[in-house]
Amino acid sequence: MGFPTVRLRRLRATGNLRRLVRETQLSVDDLIYPLFIVPGINVENEIASLPGSYHYSVDRLASIITEVTALGIPGVLLFGVPPQKDEFATGAWHEDGIVQQAIREIKRIAPELLVVTDVCLCQYTTSGHCGPVRDGIIENDPALEILAKIALSHARAGADIVAPSDMMDGRIMAIRGVLDMQGFEHISIMSYAAKYSSAYYGPFRDAAGSAPQSGDRKTYQMDPANALEALREVALDIEEGADIVMVKPGLAYLDIVWRVKEAFGMPTAVYNVSAEYAMVKAAAAKGWINEECLVMETMVGFKRAGADIIITYHAKEVAKWLRGR
């Protein structure tokens, strides 16, 4: 049957009708809020390239963690900006490293809040790369032992989920093996399984001090032109023990989110990355867009594509907007 018997506008006539037939539901339960932890005392400084996001010293975490929990956001993702760097990222797995201190403080403030930790080397290495560099080559296998040490130190500090973001081959197996051997078989791994070599990371690298000092990351992060390769990457990470798989970035890779969810049916995260956020903030500051409407449309787009989890710097705003609605 067709028009006039079928009139699809009938079910769009009122707000309550649209709610009744809405196919995709966005909830605060879908959100994870990223946090940048820095050395020092009494630091709470807005990040110029990520307006509305801040660098926090450990002693200033109470206010933001209290706000996050009050909004009902289930978890935070921690990135550390260390006081010193070296060739082998030794500060990343130190018992009193910046992230390890933050984990303990957050668990003291809000024991039920999920603490997810980024597991990588780039913020902690002098090279800014995600593995040791030898003769200009970013080495894969030596990085695995370091990544496993980092993940173990986060688990010992109280992390609920470790999230390796390095894109080294075999890192999920290395991390899972060490965690299980040390009695942390209950700790989940959220793998940055399909992480692309992207221009969308610029503001993050500014915030985390993680830009490569030479070269680029194209030999280990994925080529933006490849989709089938993403399925191979995800399949390998699942086989090695990943509990949650992630696609990063988000907006330019919604097709990858869809393919991953359809192919594997695994809990699937998407990272609404720094430039995606910063571009919205810049346009909103100019009055060129309705920020709330645009952000909420984007969040629904992630959900419609198949994402179960959305990591976003907009998380607090989205939670408030959902509550207001």
Would you give an account of this structure?
This protein has 325 residues and is an alpha/beta fold. The chain has a single domain (24-324), classed as TIM Barrel (Alpha-Beta Barrel). It has helices spanning 15-21, 61-70, 98-109, 141-157, 171-181, 202-208, 228-240, 254-264, 274-285, 291-305, 315-324; strands at residues 31-38, 44-47, 50-57, 75-80, 114-119, 133-134, 137-138, 161-164, 188-195, 244-248, 268-272, 309-312. The strands form two sheets. It has an eight-stranded parallel β-barrel with strand order 1-4-5-8-9-10-11-12, surrounded by eight helices. Strands 6-7 form a two-stranded antiparallel sheet. Helix 5 links the parallel strand 8 (161-164) and strand 9 (188-195). Helix 4 (141-157) packs across helix 5 (171-181). The longest helix has 17 residues, at 141-157.
Key structural traits:
325 residues, alpha/beta, TIM Barrel, 8-stranded parallel β-barrel, two-stranded antiparallel sheet, 11 helices, 12 strands, globular
User: What's the CATH first level?
Assistant: Alpha Beta
Strand and helix order: HEEEHEHEEEHEHEHHEHEHHEH
Helix fraction, binned, reads 25-40%
Number of continuous helical runs: 11
Which quaternary structure do these chains form?
single chain
Number of domains: 1
Mean pLDDT: 94
Q: State the total count of DSSP E strands.
A: 12
- Structural class of the secondary structure composition? alpha/beta
Q: Largest sheet at a glance?
A: 8 strands, parallel, barrel
Strand coverage percent: 15-25%
3D shape: globular
- Which architecture name does CATH use? Alpha-Beta Barrel
